[in-house]
Design goal:
308 residues; single chain; 5 strands; five-stranded antiparallel β-sheet; 8% strand; alpha+beta
Length: 308
């Protein structure tokens, strides 16, 4: 809890610049940092001022504004004032309108690197100038795809190796140039466009079309009921999960596949053994659940009743 004294100071302490302060209010924060309020030594009257101590200075240097506000319980505006006093707060950048009009063509067309080397402008400052020129003065940018230094280096490297990488896949480009997969993918797209080659997206479409045709050619075999699921998968050199996925793809196109009609076909093929063997034996033999066997027995009973 904060200690407050109205008539006499609690104590006198040093500020961060060595000046003396009379403390009239003190508070210990959860972080252990002491917060003091008071007046400069020998002066009174008005509102109590926060005293900027060495301890608070160190805390301000080590933490972000939001953390200081939360941990020390000081308003955001006061924290910003302290940071400005310590020269920690970023300086506000003001547009130079006269200079901007004189150099508007350069601002709208040159790369960030050139503008930085020539005028010492940072990327955010260049963006502020160009935003003002484009929106306020309705000036159209000469080059809407301004390149950063990183983009420029990437483009130069692509130009130097485009003939070699035109024969490579994306992973091979990544290994050859020791670059990220994303950059290798970008280069692959660029070289495919420049040399009129099929790119990754085109190859994927071709593969999907071939896979779709293969599924359609074998759709009846995928839903065979006379052999186990594992046997069907083995016939097509697939895993069980790959076969299940293929069935789902086909059922999305042909909802009737694998439904009651196919189940009835299986029932007719195995009618002699449906009641001769136990549910457990049949389920194990045909890779089904016992409930599925029970359902097939039920269908066979209905079929026999209809026959009589």
């Amino acid at each position: 809890m904060a200690k407050k004294y109205n008539l006499y100071p609690i104590k006198t302490i040093k500020g961060w610049q060595g000046e003396d302060w009379d403390v009239y209010e003190e508070r210990k924060t959860p972080t252990g940092v002491m917060i003091y309020k008071g007046w400069l030594y020998g002066s009174t009257g008005g509102f109590l001022a926060y005293i900027l101590t060495d301890e608070i200075v160190q805390f301000l240097k080590q933490h972000r504004i939001d953390e200081v506000v939360k941990q020390l319980g000081i308003s955001r505006d006061k924290v910003i004032c302290f940071r400005r006093e310590l020269n920690l707060q970023k300086k506000y950048f003001k547009l130079d309108h006269q200079w901007m009009h004189q150099h508007k063509e350069e601002l709208l067309s040159n790369t960030f690197q050139i503008l930085n080397e020539k005028y010492g402008l940072t990327k955010p400052q260049v963006n502020l100038y160009t935003k003002y020129l484009k929106q306020t003065l309705a000036v159209a940018p000469i080059d809407s795809k301004r390149q950063s230094l990183t983009s420029l280096k990437k483009e130069l490297r692509y130009q130097s190796h485009k003939h070699e990488i035109s024969q490579m896949t994306v992973p091979e480009i990544s290994d050859y140039l020791q670059i990220s997969y994303a950059t290798a993918y970008w280069m692959h797209q660029q070289v495919c466009e420049e040399f009129h080659l099929s790119n990754t997206a085109d190859n994927r479409k071709i593969h999907q079309a071939q896979y779709q045709k293969w599924l359609l050619d074998h759709k009846q075999e995928f839903f065979r009921t006379d052999i186990k699921l594992e046997d069907i998968a083995r016939n097509f050199n697939l895993t069980k999960l790959q076969l299940i996925y293929a069935r789902k793809r086909l059922q999305a196109l042909f909802p009737e596949l694998g439904k009651k009609k196919d189940v009835m076909t299986w029932v007719l093929q195995h009618r002699d053994e449906l009641f001769r063997s136990t549910r457990h034996e049949l389920a194990k033999k045909y890779d089904m659940t016992r409930d599925q066997i029970s359902y097939r027995r039920y269908l066979l009973k209905q079929l026999k009743q209809n026959e009589t």
